């Protein structure tokens, strides 16, 4: 009987989500998710660039390098927006 009324701690994942929500505004979470996606895109593009270089496919390598350059610019811009928000908003 006593055991069923005892409070149970939240699982660590739920606790972490609550603490992030308490500390961070919706905008910084949105910008962090954009950065995360941009970083994955850049990583994928560099992986493809490496594969085309190993295959000595120079035309596809050039295309993959251009895509990787675009992804890098997007990542840098997303990171700058996140940094500017954090500096201005303090979250
Ligand atoms: Zn904020």
Largest sheet: none
Query: Which compounds are bound in this model?
Result: zinc ion
Radius of gyration equals: 21 Å
Quantity of strands, as a count: 0
Helix and strand pattern: HHHH
The helix content is: over 70%
Distance between the ends? 44 Å
Dominant shape: elongated
Mean pLDDT: 88
Short précis:
The protein is built from four helices and no strands. With 91 residues, the chain is mainly alpha-helical.
Describe how the helices and strands are arranged.
Layout: H1 2-5, H2 12-23, H3 26-54, H4 58-89
Helix pairs in contact: 3-4
The protein binds zinc ion (ZN).
The site of zinc ion (ZN) has 6 residues, from helix 3 and helix 4.
What does this structure look like?
- The chain has 91 residues and is mainly alpha-helical.
- It has one domain.
- The protein is built from four helices and no strands.
- α3 (26-54) packs antiparallel against α4 (58-89).
- The longest helix has 32 residues, at 58-89.
- It is elongated, with a radius of gyration of 21 Å.
- Zinc ion (ZN) binds at residues 25, 27-28, 85, 89, 91.
Features:
91 residues; single chain; mainly alpha; binds zinc ion
């Amino acid at each position: 009987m006593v055991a069923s009324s005892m409070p149970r701690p939240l699982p660590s994942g739920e606790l972490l989500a609550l603490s992030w929500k308490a500390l961070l505004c919706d905008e910084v979470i949105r910008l962090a998710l954009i950065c995360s996606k941009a970083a994955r895109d850049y990583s994928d593009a560099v992986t493809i660039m490496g594969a085309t270089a190993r295959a000595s496919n120079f035309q596809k390598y050039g295309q993959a390098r251009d895509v990787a350059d675009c992804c890098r610019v997007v990542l840098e811009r997303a990171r700058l927006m996140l940094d500017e928000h954090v500096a201005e908003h303090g979250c």
